[in-house]
Structure formats: structure tokens, C-alpha cells
Amino acid sequence: MAEKTLSRAEPTSAGRTKFIIGGLLIVAAIVYLIASSTQAAAQYYLTVDELKDKGDVVAGRDLKISGAVDGDSIQYDVQTLTLKFTIANVPADLNQIEQEGGLAEVLHKAVADKSATRLQVVYIGPRPDLLRDEAQAIVTGRLGADGVFQADELLLKCPTRYEAEVPAQVQGG
Known about the structure:
Blueprint: H1 13-41, E1 44-47, H2 48-54, E2 63-77, E3 82-88, H3 94-99, H4 103-112, E4 118-124, E5 136-143, E6 149-157, H5 159-162
Parallel strand pairs: 1-2, 4-6
Antiparallel strand pairs: 2-3, 2-5, 3-4, 5-6
């Protein structure tokens, strides 16, 4: 009677090479998908001055812009829910903001300075309660070819509303 012996086939170098190449292709595809989705979701966070300096480089991209609301420019159409206002440039450097007296003072100076760089913003939606003169606005959207910022999202912060009162111990009372 003849005995059959089963032996495991030794992997050939060609088989190993195919396995390594297949693994590398899968890793490359995963890296590509992660990189492309990260770039598509990326947003620039800019001041009004930075936006003006970049010009056409940011055209068609999702942007977040920060500035001070000029209360005299606020226009709201109740029929179409169209809100138009202008924001003035506010520095992004926190140290500079502190040196100039805090955020409330910087927002006030930005609106009062008629030579400050400004950006027209259009937002479609209900008028926010915090929309007022010298509020900090952070708008998300895209810059139109006409230079008007079309906001999809509007976040407002009124620093004077959130300033804490100085405790009596500090005032000497």
C-alpha cells in the first residue's frame, strides 16, 4: 500500500510579493481617502484683513471669518429672512487683544475706526437676538465673486453681556 503524504506547500517568493503589493495598495487607498476627505472638510479661519489679503486663493472654499458687527449697517427683510450687515476687522492675536484693553474694547475700536477693513455679509435665516452693534460675529460660508460673503452659519457673541462684575473684595468694599 502506498502512503500519501500531505505536505504544505512552501510560499514562493512570487506569492509573498503579491501579498506585499496587495497590502501596500490597500494602505495607499486608505491614506488617499483620509487625505482627500480631510482637505474637503477643511475650513480657513480668517480675519477680515487676512481674507482681503488672500484674494482669489480662497475663492470657492468654505471659510470662517471673524469680525465686529457695525450696527449702522444692519438691514433685515422680514419677508425674505435676508439679513445684511458689515463686519469690521478684529485682530486674531489674543495678546494684542489683551494689550488693547480686552475684546469689548477691540470690538468698539474696530467699529469706530471707519478706515478699518470691512466685509459685507448676507445671511438667510431668522435674525439672531444677539445681533447688535459691536458684537463679535463668526460667519461660516463662502465669498462671492462680487466680494459679498454668503454666510450659511452665523455665531454672535456680545462681550459686554458676558463681562463679569468685579467682586467687592477687589473694589475695596
